[in-house]
Amino acid sequence: MSFSSNYNLMNNRSLSLLNFVLIFSATCCYETHAIAASKGTNSESSFRWSSVSTPAQKVTYIDQKIKSYQKGGQISDKTVRVVYFYTKDRGPCKNYQERWNRILSVVEDYFNSEFKRYQLEGISLAMEKEGSNYKLHLVESKQPFEHYLTETPRRIRKEVDSAMLARGIDPDQECFLIVNTLSNVEGNKIDAGGKAVGIGPSQLFGGCHVTDSELLDVKFKSLEPIQFRNISKMQEGYKQETLERYHRRAVGCVIHELSHALGIRHNTQNREETSFGKSIMGGGGMYSFKGYLLKPDTPRAIFVCGDIVRLMTHPICSGSIKQREDFPITEFFNLDCDYRSNRIYVTGHVRADIEPIAVIAYNDYSGIEDNYDATSFLSVVNDNHEFRFEIDDIRNGDFELRLFAIHANGARSELRPLHYRTNDNEPDLRVARVYFELSPFLDALKNKDLKSARKIQDMLVQEPSKRIARQLLDRELPLLEPSQFSGRSDEIALTDFKPKIAEVGFGNPVYDRRPGDNPLLESGGNLYETGIYAHSPSRYVFRLNGKWKKFKGYIGLASGKSGSVEFEIKTDGKSVARSPVIKQNVVMPYDVDVEGIRELELITYPTDDGGSSDHGFWLEPKLCK
């Protein structure tokens, strides 16, 4: 017997889901998270959503909310600090201060011109200066040049943090733009080392890394040909380009990575924003910067309106540090989604003890973290705590919708990803609806608030949601092995029995849930009620003692995981089924004859890409008489 490659997406044991509208009481939501926030009483909104239908209208509405929140708050003195990291055996690149004065001027002008495009007053990128120059904090490396070419930026960041702490600057309270000198220039050839990367975990701190070279200078708009090679990416051979294109790409990289340091994710423009240009956080890093490009007809690089809102609330741009060090307790509730007129409509409420002023939705292929093609959508949060989206980016495949509440102090809160599958340009939202209904319940479990979880469980509407909640709350450890079963059932879940041996490659063996904050068993666009966690390499052994005739179910990877796994079934030590490599969004059934078999062995193996994210599952595993 072999694993079959044919499977029914919504098979008989997958969940049959129903449409629903969720109404959770304010009392329940408050008990779950003890949120100190005003209660909204209107279930039917009188808010005119047509008044905030365009990007400009949304940003203007949110700007008014932010300004109202900031009244009386302390003025921020936070700036982007630029660190110039050079190796001790080579020193800084030639003319670094003059060149980076010009580069940083272009960067600052780009941010501020985008704020002006949205007619925002009092919002600007604050960069540290010393007199008429941008201040560059010089940090000399501890090791020679060659040591850093293949190192991750973490090593450089560790040395930078140590040096800045010695100068009385706390890295956990700062945003650093780190410029390294890991490049070789010979004639018209540039070898660039060092990885360009940026991360902004919160409104408190962030950082990014970019690479300098003595040829990088925005003063020169030359079409002179050069040859470029990225050593850090093990690029073979040189890429031909002009000096002007190299400058444009390098400056675009600085803006892109600094935006990450300020908390912005990869995303691209939606259809409504396409007429304005291309997202700097998607494919726009190669596009135009004001007053810089030789080609005036090149599409403008833009911040989409969701990016602008993230920046508006960041203390480095907002000019306010009100509640800067606070992190909100947030509740999403009354969530619903629907598909009509070629759009996905998402509605809901969000409440927190620090005012949420917007919600951003990223629509992205499932299992691809921070994809450049993730389309972003922005909704305001009105006085009734409501938000809503119309998502017109309908593509075939497996998708996840990631929702982030943006708070007035610059913090953000994330709702767990919601998954759906689109075939023939029609999305199936049944799994997403179960996620929506279970979201408050899962939050209560995450916070170990079992009292509230049981109250929410009693209010669940959909049968799949009820069954999943019951499994998560009332799951008892199995006491019997399959060989000890004496009941009359002809078919029973393997997870009702304890194994003889249970070993997994990461974490602990677990039944009927995923480890971590999101316990739902989701794979290939479906939710499953029962399953065995089998992160590779894993091995489960069950004693059957000849009592069973069939073993059947499905195999797959947990949604959102990018690993790959091979599955194998052995009976009495003999391999009877081995799968091909199983990757994201693939689910395959199995059906094995176990008549007369004494031991059943379930194994997963890592593949050539290693064991990272190999969250395999034996889904709906059943023994039959």
Question: How does this model look, in words?
Answer:
The protein has 625 residues and is α+β, with helices and mostly antiparallel strands. It has 11 helices and 33 strands. The strands form 9 sheets. A 5-stranded mixed sheet has the order 4-1-5-9-8. It has a 5-stranded antiparallel sheet with strand order 17-16-19-20-21. A hairpin with a 2-residue loop joins strand 2 and strand 3. Helix 2 runs parallel beside helix 7 and helix 3 (96-117) crosses helix 6. The longest helix has 22 residues, at 96-117. It starts with 25 loop residues before the first helix and ends with a strand.
Q: What is the chains' assembly state?
A: single chain
* Cα-atom radius of gyration: 27 Å
Q: Average pLDDT, to the nearest integer?
A: 86
- Biggest sheet statistics: 5 strands, mixed
- Beta-strand fraction estimate: 25-35%
The number of E-state strands comes to: 33
- The helicity comes to 10-25%
Distance between the termini: 18 Å
Low-confidence stretches are: 5-43, 290-294
Q: Strand order, main sheet: write it out.
A: 4-1-5-9-8
Count every helix, treating DSSP H or I runs of 4 or more residues as helices: 11
Class by SSE composition: alpha+beta
Overall 3D geometry?
globular
